Amino acid sequence: MTTLLMFTISLNAIISAVVPLPFPDCQKGPLAAYPICDASLSYRVRAMDLISRMTTTEKITQMVNTAPAIERLGLPGYEWWSEALHGIAYSPGVSFGGDFPSATSFPMPINLGASFNTRIVYQIAQIISTEARAFSNAGRAGLTYFTPNINIFRDPRWGRGQETPGEDPFLTSRYVYALIDGLQKGDDPRYLKIAADCKHFNAYDLENWNGTDRFHFDAIVTDQDLVETFLPPFESCIRDAHVASIMCSYNAINGVPSCANTFELQKIARESYHLDGFVVSDCGAVGTIMDTHHYTKTVQDTVAVALHAGTDLNCGDFYLKHTADALSNKTIVEADIDQALQRNFEVLIRLGYFDSPDGQPYRKYSKTDVNTDVAQVLSVQAAHESIVLLKNQNNGLPLKVDTMAGKKVALIGPTANATILQQGNYYGAAPYIINPIVGFQAVTAGKDIDVQFAYGCEIAGTDTSGFEAALQLARSADYVFFFGGLNQSIEAEGLDRTSITLPGVQMTLLEQVANISKAPIHVVIMSGGGVDLTVARDSPRVDSITWMGYAGQAGGLAIANVIFGLYNPAGRLPVTIYPTDYVNQVSMFNMNMRPGDANPGRTYKFYTGEAVYEFGHGLSYTTFSYDWGQPSKISVIDITTLMKTGYNDRTITDTYRVNVTNTGMVAGDDIVLAYVKATNLPKFIQPPLKQLFGFERIHLNVGETQEVFFPLTIRVLLSVGKDGSTWLHPGTYKIFIGNDAHISCKIKLVGISSRWA
User: Start and end of every Fibronectin type III-like domain (predicted)?
Assistant: First the structure.
């Protein structure tokens, strides 16, 4: 959201400043006698009452994120902009210090995507919202949080893909439902726990590439891709999870800036998905309507198109500076302002902002509810579950600590001593950060194992002066680990990659270490986006490759536990890892998901090339077998019958039962993935190569069997036409379990092609 061009935030200032954020006094204050303070009235009536007591000038001051106090009404100032992507984060509404020096820092969303565990997403969200309320009660945070980011990780170069759970719309939809549920709901159903904000609406996935930044980018998106890929997570967030707000993005969509896009904000978000809340602009995005997209020519027209499209709250100051002028020249009327404020204040009312703290459990949270033992344990568990073992040649892992007495373990590379790097972006002050070195030392403590570290090189840059020390250590070690990857100077908000290889001289160092070491090499990658690891994958000198993402405050302990077998890895890639040349085959400006001219296709659903590692790939220290829980047969379904279900695409047509057995020697989790592949459709249809429609993470002891259920809904069988319409087509639909199609069966739809919606 923020940029150096628009909003520069000094972290030091945020840390040191304590900005009181008092609640309105509805017991003895000036508002106490008015309907706004009467909890028995509807949200709408209460908000209308408050707005009616403001002058026009006062109303305008409340249309921006940093809203000043209206002292004559006893309305405190309020900062709408707080952040909590994976824990309370530095932002204008959040201040760390005093009794609140830190907050739990969980793994990044890309890690949570790799866990394929919506239960842990919900648990994390519950803790984040509890800590957010505790901060708020101490005047150190607001109640409205500009999180989560649910854009699709469409292109591996995107700098903010790390903020998302990955490339798949179904996975992202399940993630956001669990997250919003955990953030907004709690012990008191009368109130929102906090107000979340799904962003960035819509088709936002470019920062700054090849001379075009996000403020100028016009995303040309087909109706087919909009319906099939970009909208489903927002549908889940708005329609199903009932998020309190959404954020319109910097980019334009098909020529219309997002924050001026009536079709997106009104037709889709409000009318189709029934948004019950407000729309906030990305910070500075109202100004870009005129300044960078040149969609309007005057500030008055800019205010008008944004307000009329449904942008209720301006993160920035454009409304503050220019709304009065728009009102004066009649491009807007005061009712437009009132409507925006109505939506904003209704959310604050739903948060209990204007109600007595007595009887509100959320107003009782305090410093003792931050960084609890439960939160610390969950941060380790989440990191564990997100780690993905990509290669394990010769069963090189896990290491057996009890057989390593007197041995030397070398940790080489620029991410082994990572600290805040493990937090990714949108992070806050963590109570502690355990890096891999400390993690290895903790696991091997008292075992007479010598753990040594050599930096080797920086993440980026060409300095090789550290090679000699690294190679000397590699030559003398019994076990050698290379820790490499990316950081926020490579992938970040405002910064896309131009290459998907290891940056700088990391690969050169890895190759030299592999050549000189007497021991096999184990590679650990810390990154958000995918990195081409073909050389390491194919090298007989590299025994294992592990991706740990940005695993949060306990990431170093988690990776050490995995390496030494104290935790059996089960994470799966939430993205496709492409070969290096992919970036030369398709422009980031090309938004098309399906293959075509100068586009080999995007994500596992449409990529026609050979991936380095596929979406859903991940290994374990044990093995699993799959069997159908019911006889495998070809089901025949008449399209006419499905068309009589009242156009409810969530109608279940069948349920697939899968028996999963741990056939290996150790207990572990398995992530069971269910896909559908459509074949023999009418020739003009170009369906996905395959499509995820179910997943479940389960834990199995040795020899244990569990049954997993996958309901197949009509939605899974729908095809999206080029015009965005959805259809049921006759053809064969293959249902298969696992990336390697361990077991499969078929469905035949018979009848004539029928339009669903």
Answer: 670-741
